[in-house]
Design goal:
The protein is α+β, with helices and mostly antiparallel strands. The chain has 2 helices and 7 strands, in the order H-E-E-E-H-E-E-E-E.
Length: 144
């Protein structure tokens, strides 16, 4: 009966290690390929989102000839006259039941405004100039 000598055993170990290394290299290459595909899909999704935003802005601009602009308050769109909008009007849009809570206070943040005031906080009694696509977040914060 042939007994493998140390050289044969070492060669077998080296061959097995090389096979495992080659398998790991293939797995690593596949992982790089999958990562590149995921990044490409993510970039495509970002571009599609930007394109949808541009389309929405174009649609809003198309209707802007009637003297109104479209703003978003929380999750709903509202057509409002061009110019300024008040704290109270934003509260009315965001909380139609606001009169049932006469002592409530509201926190109103805005973004995507004109260059002069692109973002900020709208305080009670205040107003802000509005543009198409401007977004407001109104939150009932408590009772005064």
């Amino acid at each position: 009966m042939d007994v493998p000598d140390d050289d044969d055993r070492d060669k077998g170990l080296v061959d097995r290690a090389l096979n495992e290394l080659q398998g790991a290299e293939r797995d690593h290459a596949r992982a790089r390929e999958l990562r590149a595909q995921a990044e490409a899909l993510d970039a495509k999704g970002d571009e599609e989102e930007r394109e949808a935003e541009r389309d929405l802005e174009k649609a809003r601009d198309h209707h802007a000839d009637d003297g109104t602009v479209t703003i978003t308050v929380n999750t709903g769109d509202s057509r409002e006259p061009k110019g300024s909008i008040t704290y109270n009007r934003i509260v009315e849009i965001a909380y139609p039941d606001h009169t049932a809570h006469p002592n409530a206070t509201y926190s109103i943040l805005y973004e995507r405004g004109p260059k002069a005031n692109p973002e900020g906080t709208l305080s009670k009694g205040g107003s802000v100039f509005i543009t198409n696509g401007m977004r407001f977040r109104a939150k009932r914060t408590g009772e005064s």
